[in-house]
Amino acid sequence: MKIGIVGYKGRMGKEIRDLFEEKSHEFVWGYDKDGEYFQKNPQIIIDFSLPEVFEKTEEYVKKFNVPLIIGTTGLQEEQIEALKALAKEVPVVQSYNFSIGIQLFLKMVDILKDKIDGWDVEIVETHHRFKKDKPSGTAKMIKESLNKDVPISSLRLGNVAGDHVLYMANLGEVLSISHRALSRRAFAEGVLKSAKFVINKKNGYFTFTDVI
Ligand SMILES: NC(=O)C1=CN([C@@H]2O[C@H](COP(=O)(O)OP(=O)(O)OC[C@H]3O[C@@H](n4cnc5c(N)ncnc54)[C@H](OP(=O)(O)O)[C@@H]3O)[C@@H](O)[C@H]2O)C=CC1
Ligand SMILES: O=C(O)C1=N[C@H](C(=O)O)C[C@H](O)C1
Protein backbone atom coordinates (compact mmCIF):
# COMPACT_ATOMS: atom_id res chain seq x y z
CA MET A 1 0.00 0.00 0.00
CA LYS A 2 0.98 3.64 -0.46
CA ILE A 3 1.22 5.32 2.92
CA GLY A 4 1.24 8.88 4.17
CA ILE A 5 2.59 9.83 7.61
CA VAL A 6 1.84 12.92 9.69
CA GLY A 7 4.95 13.38 11.85
CA TYR A 8 7.10 11.42 9.38
CA LYS A 9 10.42 12.80 10.68
CA GLY A 10 9.60 11.94 14.31
CA ARG A 11 10.65 8.86 16.31
CA MET A 12 7.46 6.91 15.56
CA GLY A 13 7.17 8.30 12.03
CA LYS A 14 10.62 6.93 11.15
CA GLU A 15 9.97 3.53 12.78
CA ILE A 16 6.67 3.16 10.90
CA ARG A 17 8.20 4.19 7.58
CA ASP A 18 11.11 1.70 8.07
CA LEU A 19 8.79 -1.20 8.91
CA PHE A 20 6.35 -0.53 6.05
CA GLU A 21 9.22 -0.18 3.55
CA GLU A 22 10.78 -3.44 4.81
CA LYS A 23 7.43 -5.09 4.00
CA SER A 24 7.45 -3.54 0.48
CA HIS A 25 4.91 -0.80 1.13
CA GLU A 26 5.63 2.66 -0.25
CA PHE A 27 6.00 5.92 1.68
CA VAL A 28 4.58 8.54 -0.71
CA TRP A 29 3.36 11.47 1.38
CA GLY A 30 4.29 13.15 4.63
CA TYR A 31 3.49 16.15 6.78
CA ASP A 32 5.78 17.65 9.38
CA LYS A 33 6.71 20.96 11.01
CA ASP A 34 8.45 21.89 7.74
CA GLY A 35 5.26 21.28 5.71
CA GLU A 36 4.24 18.73 3.11
CA TYR A 37 6.29 16.09 1.30
CA PHE A 38 4.42 14.92 -1.80
CA GLN A 39 5.33 12.17 -4.20
CA LYS A 40 1.93 10.52 -4.86
CA ASN A 41 -1.52 10.46 -3.28
CA PRO A 42 -1.46 8.12 -0.22
CA GLN A 43 -4.01 5.28 0.21
CA ILE A 44 -3.91 5.65 4.00
CA ILE A 45 -2.75 8.31 6.48
CA ILE A 46 -1.00 7.45 9.77
CA ASP A 47 -0.69 10.21 12.39
CA PHE A 48 1.91 10.08 15.17
CA SER A 49 2.51 13.74 15.94
CA LEU A 50 0.99 16.21 18.41
CA PRO A 51 -2.62 17.16 19.28
CA GLU A 52 -2.10 20.64 17.77
CA VAL A 53 -1.56 19.03 14.34
CA PHE A 54 -4.94 17.24 14.49
CA GLU A 55 -6.93 19.75 12.40
CA LYS A 56 -4.33 19.52 9.61
CA THR A 57 -4.55 15.71 9.67
CA GLU A 58 -8.35 15.92 9.46
CA GLU A 59 -8.02 18.27 6.46
CA TYR A 60 -5.65 15.91 4.57
CA VAL A 61 -7.72 12.77 5.35
CA LYS A 62 -10.75 14.52 3.82
CA LYS A 63 -8.73 15.79 0.86
CA PHE A 64 -7.32 12.33 -0.04
CA ASN A 65 -10.50 10.55 1.20
CA VAL A 66 -8.49 7.73 2.81
CA PRO A 67 -8.49 5.72 6.08
CA LEU A 68 -6.77 7.20 9.13
CA ILE A 69 -4.73 5.47 11.85
CA ILE A 70 -3.98 7.81 14.73
CA GLY A 71 -1.67 7.09 17.66
CA THR A 72 -1.04 10.65 18.80
CA THR A 73 -1.64 10.99 22.55
CA GLY A 74 -3.07 13.86 24.58
CA LEU A 75 -6.04 14.40 22.25
CA GLN A 76 -8.80 16.63 23.65
CA GLU A 77 -12.35 15.28 24.12
CA GLU A 78 -13.52 17.47 21.18
CA GLN A 79 -10.81 15.94 18.97
CA ILE A 80 -12.02 12.41 19.82
CA GLU A 81 -15.57 13.57 18.94
CA ALA A 82 -14.23 15.01 15.66
CA LEU A 83 -12.57 11.63 14.92
CA LYS A 84 -15.91 9.86 15.48
CA ALA A 85 -17.58 12.30 13.09
CA LEU A 86 -14.78 11.76 10.52
CA ALA A 87 -15.31 7.99 10.87
CA LYS A 88 -18.74 8.40 9.23
CA GLU A 89 -16.88 9.31 6.01
CA VAL A 90 -13.69 7.18 6.21
CA PRO A 91 -12.47 4.36 8.49
CA VAL A 92 -10.51 5.49 11.56
CA VAL A 93 -8.39 3.42 13.98
CA GLN A 94 -7.49 5.29 17.18
CA SER A 95 -5.38 3.96 20.05
CA TYR A 96 -2.99 5.39 22.61
CA ASN A 97 -1.03 2.13 22.45
CA PHE A 98 -0.55 -0.14 19.41
CA SER A 99 1.33 -2.96 21.21
CA ILE A 100 -0.22 -6.41 21.66
CA GLY A 101 1.09 -6.58 25.24
CA ILE A 102 -0.94 -3.57 26.36
CA GLN A 103 -4.07 -5.13 24.85
CA LEU A 104 -3.44 -8.23 27.02
CA PHE A 105 -2.73 -5.92 30.01
CA LEU A 106 -6.14 -4.26 29.52
CA LYS A 107 -7.83 -7.70 29.38
CA MET A 108 -6.22 -8.58 32.73
CA VAL A 109 -7.44 -5.28 34.19
CA ASP A 110 -10.93 -6.13 33.03
CA ILE A 111 -10.80 -9.47 34.91
CA LEU A 112 -9.34 -7.89 38.09
CA LYS A 113 -11.16 -4.60 38.36
CA ASP A 114 -14.20 -5.85 40.33
CA LYS A 115 -12.09 -7.95 42.69
CA ILE A 116 -9.89 -5.26 44.26
CA ASP A 117 -12.38 -3.17 46.24
CA GLY A 118 -10.58 -1.62 49.21
CA TRP A 119 -7.09 -2.22 47.74
CA ASP A 120 -4.61 0.60 47.10
CA VAL A 121 -4.31 0.97 43.34
CA GLU A 122 -1.69 3.10 41.55
CA ILE A 123 -0.31 3.36 38.01
CA VAL A 124 3.35 4.18 37.26
CA GLU A 125 4.47 5.02 33.73
CA THR A 126 8.06 5.63 32.59
CA HIS A 127 9.06 7.17 29.26
CA HIS A 128 12.03 8.81 27.53
CA ARG A 129 12.99 12.37 28.44
CA PHE A 130 11.68 13.73 25.09
CA LYS A 131 8.05 12.77 25.68
CA LYS A 132 5.88 15.89 25.67
CA ASP A 133 2.67 14.68 27.37
CA LYS A 134 2.11 13.56 30.94
CA PRO A 135 0.56 11.22 31.98
CA SER A 136 0.90 8.85 29.03
CA GLY A 137 -2.11 7.99 26.90
CA THR A 138 -1.70 4.33 27.91
CA ALA A 139 -1.86 5.19 31.63
CA LYS A 140 -5.12 7.03 30.91
CA MET A 141 -6.47 3.93 29.10
CA ILE A 142 -5.54 1.71 32.08
CA LYS A 143 -7.26 4.14 34.45
CA GLU A 144 -10.36 4.20 32.24
CA SER A 145 -10.44 0.36 32.19
CA LEU A 146 -10.31 0.32 36.01
CA ASN A 147 -13.29 2.64 36.00
CA LYS A 148 -12.07 4.52 39.06
CA ASP A 149 -9.96 7.51 39.91
CA VAL A 150 -6.49 6.18 40.73
CA PRO A 151 -3.20 8.12 41.01
CA ILE A 152 -0.77 8.05 38.08
CA SER A 153 2.96 8.72 38.59
CA SER A 154 5.01 9.71 35.55
CA LEU A 155 8.78 9.27 35.29
CA ARG A 156 10.81 10.72 32.42
CA LEU A 157 14.10 8.82 32.19
CA GLY A 158 16.70 8.56 29.44
CA ASN A 159 15.56 6.69 26.38
CA VAL A 160 12.87 4.37 27.84
CA ALA A 161 10.48 3.36 25.02
CA GLY A 162 7.47 2.86 27.32
CA ASP A 163 6.91 1.08 30.66
CA HIS A 164 3.56 0.77 32.44
CA VAL A 165 2.95 -0.85 35.83
CA LEU A 166 -0.32 -1.23 37.69
CA TYR A 167 0.17 -1.83 41.42
CA MET A 168 -2.58 -3.24 43.64
CA ALA A 169 -2.07 -3.85 47.35
CA ASN A 170 -4.00 -4.83 50.45
CA LEU A 171 -2.46 -5.06 53.93
CA GLY A 172 -0.97 -8.47 53.25
CA GLU A 173 0.11 -8.54 49.63
CA VAL A 174 1.08 -6.59 46.52
CA LEU A 175 -0.01 -7.61 43.04
CA SER A 176 1.33 -5.90 39.92
CA ILE A 177 0.87 -6.09 36.17
CA SER A 178 3.67 -4.63 34.11
CA HIS A 179 4.48 -4.08 30.45
CA ARG A 180 7.70 -2.90 28.84
CA ALA A 181 8.07 -1.96 25.19
CA LEU A 182 11.62 -2.99 24.25
CA SER A 183 11.59 -0.64 21.27
CA ARG A 184 9.15 1.34 19.09
CA ARG A 185 8.97 -1.62 16.71
CA ALA A 186 6.18 -3.16 18.84
CA PHE A 187 3.97 -0.09 18.18
CA ALA A 188 4.87 0.04 14.47
CA GLU A 189 3.90 -3.66 14.08
CA GLY A 190 0.48 -2.81 15.54
CA VAL A 191 0.11 0.05 13.07
CA LEU A 192 0.86 -2.32 10.17
CA LYS A 193 -1.78 -4.78 11.47
CA SER A 194 -4.24 -1.89 11.74
CA ALA A 195 -3.48 -0.70 8.20
CA LYS A 196 -4.22 -4.17 6.78
CA PHE A 197 -7.43 -4.31 8.86
CA VAL A 198 -8.72 -0.92 7.76
CA ILE A 199 -7.51 -0.43 4.19
CA ASN A 200 -10.57 -1.94 2.48
CA LYS A 201 -13.22 -0.69 4.89
CA LYS A 202 -15.66 2.02 3.81
CA ASN A 203 -15.96 3.85 7.14
CA GLY A 204 -16.30 3.25 10.92
CA TYR A 205 -14.57 4.05 14.20
CA PHE A 206 -12.24 1.33 15.48
CA THR A 207 -9.73 0.89 18.29
CA PHE A 208 -6.71 -1.43 18.32
CA THR A 209 -8.84 -3.85 20.39
CA ASP A 210 -11.13 -4.21 17.34
CA VAL A 211 -8.08 -4.85 15.14
CA ILE A 212 -6.70 -7.75 17.20
N1 LIG B 1 -0.27 5.05 20.21
C1 LIG B 1 0.95 4.51 20.33
O1 LIG B 1 1.14 3.27 20.31
C2 LIG B 1 2.11 5.43 20.49
C3 LIG B 1 1.90 6.77 20.50
N2 LIG B 1 2.95 7.64 20.54
C4 LIG B 1 2.60 9.04 20.41
O2 LIG B 1 2.97 9.47 19.10
C5 LIG B 1 3.26 10.86 19.13
C6 LIG B 1 4.63 11.10 18.50
O3 LIG B 1 5.63 10.53 19.29
P1 LIG B 1 7.16 10.60 18.84
O4 LIG B 1 7.32 10.07 17.47
O5 LIG B 1 7.96 10.03 19.95
O6 LIG B 1 7.38 12.19 18.82
P2 LIG B 1 8.40 13.07 17.97
O7 LIG B 1 8.51 14.37 18.67
O8 LIG B 1 9.63 12.30 17.68
O9 LIG B 1 7.61 13.28 16.60
C7 LIG B 1 6.55 14.18 16.45
C8 LIG B 1 6.41 14.53 15.00
O10 LIG B 1 5.37 15.51 14.83
C9 LIG B 1 5.92 16.62 14.13
N3 LIG B 1 5.33 17.91 14.52
C10 LIG B 1 5.48 18.56 15.70
N4 LIG B 1 4.83 19.74 15.68
C11 LIG B 1 4.28 19.83 14.46
C12 LIG B 1 3.49 20.82 13.82
N5 LIG B 1 3.13 21.94 14.45
N6 LIG B 1 3.08 20.60 12.54
C13 LIG B 1 3.43 19.46 11.91
N7 LIG B 1 4.18 18.47 12.47
C14 LIG B 1 4.60 18.66 13.72
C15 LIG B 1 7.39 16.62 14.50
O11 LIG B 1 8.12 17.39 13.56
P3 LIG B 1 9.69 17.72 13.84
O12 LIG B 1 10.39 16.42 13.67
O13 LIG B 1 10.01 18.69 12.76
O14 LIG B 1 9.74 18.27 15.23
C16 LIG B 1 7.69 15.12 14.42
O15 LIG B 1 7.85 14.69 13.10
C17 LIG B 1 3.16 11.29 20.58
O16 LIG B 1 1.87 11.81 20.81
C18 LIG B 1 3.33 9.97 21.35
O17 LIG B 1 2.79 10.00 22.62
C19 LIG B 1 4.24 7.21 20.58
C20 LIG B 1 4.52 5.88 20.59
C21 LIG B 1 3.47 4.87 20.54
O1 LIG C 1 5.46 8.92 23.61
C1 LIG C 1 5.75 7.71 23.62
O2 LIG C 1 6.90 7.32 23.37
C2 LIG C 1 4.69 6.72 23.89
N1 LIG C 1 3.48 7.16 24.01
C3 LIG C 1 2.31 6.38 24.19
C4 LIG C 1 1.57 6.80 25.45
O3 LIG C 1 1.55 8.01 25.75
O4 LIG C 1 0.97 5.96 26.10
C5 LIG C 1 2.53 4.89 24.08
C6 LIG C 1 3.89 4.39 24.43
O5 LIG C 1 3.97 4.10 25.78
C7 LIG C 1 5.03 5.29 23.94
From TrEMBL:
<comment type="subunit">
    <text>Homotetramer.</text>
</comment>
<dbReference type="InterPro" id="IPR023940">
    <property type="entry name" value="DHDPR_bac"/>
</dbReference>
<protein>
    <recommendedName>
        <fullName>4-hydroxy-tetrahydrodipicolinate reductase</fullName>
        <ecNumber>1.17.1.8</ecNumber>
    </recommendedName>
</protein>
<dbReference type="Pfam" id="PF05173">
    <property type="entry name" value="DapB_C"/>
</dbReference>
<keyword id="KW-0457">Lysine biosynthesis</keyword>
<dbReference type="GO" id="GO:0051287">
    <property type="term" value="F:NAD binding"/>
</dbReference>
<dbReference type="InterPro" id="IPR022664">
    <property type="entry name" value="DapB_N_CS"/>
</dbReference>
<feature type="active site" description="Proton donor">
    <location>
        <position position="131"/>
    </location>
</feature>
<feature type="domain" description="Dihydrodipicolinate reductase N-terminal">
    <location>
        <begin position="1"/>
        <end position="98"/>
    </location>
</feature>
<keyword id="KW-0963">Cytoplasm</keyword>
<dbReference type="GO" id="GO:0019877">
    <property type="term" value="P:diaminopimelate biosynthetic process"/>
</dbReference>
<dbReference type="GO" id="GO:0008839">
    <property type="term" value="F:4-hydroxy-tetrahydrodipicolinate reductase"/>
</dbReference>
<keyword id="KW-0028">Amino-acid biosynthesis</keyword>
<feature type="binding site">
    <location>
        <position position="33"/>
    </location>
    <ligand>
        <name>NADP(+)</name>
    </ligand>
</feature>
<comment type="pathway">
    <text>Amino-acid biosynthesis; L-lysine biosynthesis via DAP pathway; (S)-tetrahydrodipicolinate from L-aspartate: step 4/4.</text>
</comment>
<dbReference type="GO" id="GO:0050661">
    <property type="term" value="F:NADP binding"/>
</dbReference>
<feature type="binding site">
    <location>
        <begin position="137"/>
        <end position="138"/>
    </location>
    <ligand>
        <name>(S)-2,3,4,5-tetrahydrodipicolinate</name>
    </ligand>
</feature>
<dbReference type="GO" id="GO:0009089">
    <property type="term" value="P:lysine biosynthetic process via diaminopimelate"/>
</dbReference>
<comment type="function">
    <text>Catalyzes the conversion of 4-hydroxy-tetrahydrodipicolinate (HTPA) to tetrahydrodipicolinate.</text>
</comment>
<keyword id="KW-0560">Oxidoreductase</keyword>
<keyword id="KW-0521">NADP</keyword>
<feature type="domain" description="Dihydrodipicolinate reductase C-terminal">
    <location>
        <begin position="101"/>
        <end position="212"/>
    </location>
</feature>
<keyword id="KW-0520">NAD</keyword>
<feature type="active site" description="Proton donor/acceptor">
    <location>
        <position position="127"/>
    </location>
</feature>
<keyword id="KW-0220">Diaminopimelate biosynthesis</keyword>
<dbReference type="GO" id="GO:0016726">
    <property type="term" value="F:oxidoreductase activity, acting on CH or CH2 groups, NAD or NADP as acceptor"/>
</dbReference>
<dbReference type="InterPro" id="IPR036291">
    <property type="entry name" value="NAD(P)-bd_dom_sf"/>
</dbReference>
<feature type="binding site">
    <location>
        <begin position="95"/>
        <end position="98"/>
    </location>
    <ligand>
        <name>NAD(+)</name>
    </ligand>
</feature>
<dbReference type="GO" id="GO:0005829">
    <property type="term" value="C:cytosol"/>
</dbReference>
<feature type="binding site">
    <location>
        <position position="128"/>
    </location>
    <ligand>
        <name>(S)-2,3,4,5-tetrahydrodipicolinate</name>
    </ligand>
</feature>
<dbReference type="InterPro" id="IPR000846">
    <property type="entry name" value="DapB_N"/>
</dbReference>
<comment type="similarity">
    <text>Belongs to the DapB family.</text>
</comment>
<dbReference type="Pfam" id="PF01113">
    <property type="entry name" value="DapB_N"/>
</dbReference>
<feature type="binding site">
    <location>
        <begin position="7"/>
        <end position="12"/>
    </location>
    <ligand>
        <name>NAD(+)</name>
    </ligand>
</feature>
<feature type="binding site">
    <location>
        <begin position="71"/>
        <end position="73"/>
    </location>
    <ligand>
        <name>NAD(+)</name>
    </ligand>
</feature>
<feature type="binding site">
    <location>
        <position position="32"/>
    </location>
    <ligand>
        <name>NAD(+)</name>
    </ligand>
</feature>
<dbReference type="InterPro" id="IPR022663">
    <property type="entry name" value="DapB_C"/>
</dbReference>
